[in-house]
Amino acid sequence: MEPLLLSVEERAELERWTRRATSAQALALRARIVLACAGPEVPPIVAVARDLRVAADTVRKWRRRFLAERLEGLVDEPRPGRPPTISVDQVEQFQLKPHLADTFKLSTDPLFVEKVYDVVGLYFNPPEGAVVLSVDEKSQIQALDRSQPVLPMMPGMPERRTHDYVRNGLTALFAAFDVATGEVVTALHCRHRAVEFKKFLIRIDKEVPAHLQVHLIVDNYGTHKTPGIRAWLAKRPRFELHFTPTGSSWINQVERWFGYLAHQMIRRGAHKNIQALEADIRAWVKDWNEDPKPFIWTKTAEEILDSLARFCRRISGAGH
Question: Residues 6 or more apart from 195 whose CB is under 8 A from it?
């Protein structure tokens, strides 16, 4: 196997990528892989993979890419379209803060940039030998029964429903949306505490084949970070959590799936009790999984940050 030798400049740049607090996690990992493989003697691929807790194929891929294309090979290829008007370095140095504005806050997360790169990187470049799941809970789904029957559609007259309801209880839906296939793993619970989230993780662990790594995209809700959850994850190294920026649920694909569920089933339904509601949810999920549809993510991290920066400059009057 060909040795991977670095110039002084290349080593300095790779080390910079691994150190920057706002670097994309995917890029930081690639830099660590190359640094671990560098030297006149070729270290065993399996040993590097074990130390970095990645698949051996991932190490081979980025080692091979670096040898062929050097530093440029580690950076995501630019997508077609207008290039960003605000550079990534400008954003990362926080000369511009696209997540903050004096008059309107999009997110107060100090790691906003890092998390955007991390999550979007998973959408565009999912790790080899892994499944990427977008995970969240839709809490307080109400079993609502209409006070009067729905009047069916007739010629020249749309379907009509009353706007007042009888409330018959609540349920919570846990969902893990596979961003590659569109398939969804779900569980229904009466509450959405850390206890229920742990049960859902156990279900995911059983559903996903044991040879695959599991990358979970989750929000910053407290139930995802309790000592019990961290202890469970520590015993299962194939699991890795990736947190979305605070107040940025739009970046988590499962939220779009929840929107389909709400529009197509929950809002149109009438349920006299929780059991009826949960039965309909399970049936709808079963139908979805028989013909799952992944969502096509089109915005790169650079494009997202560029759009937010221009928006914040506009609403704050910057540049005038």
Answer: none
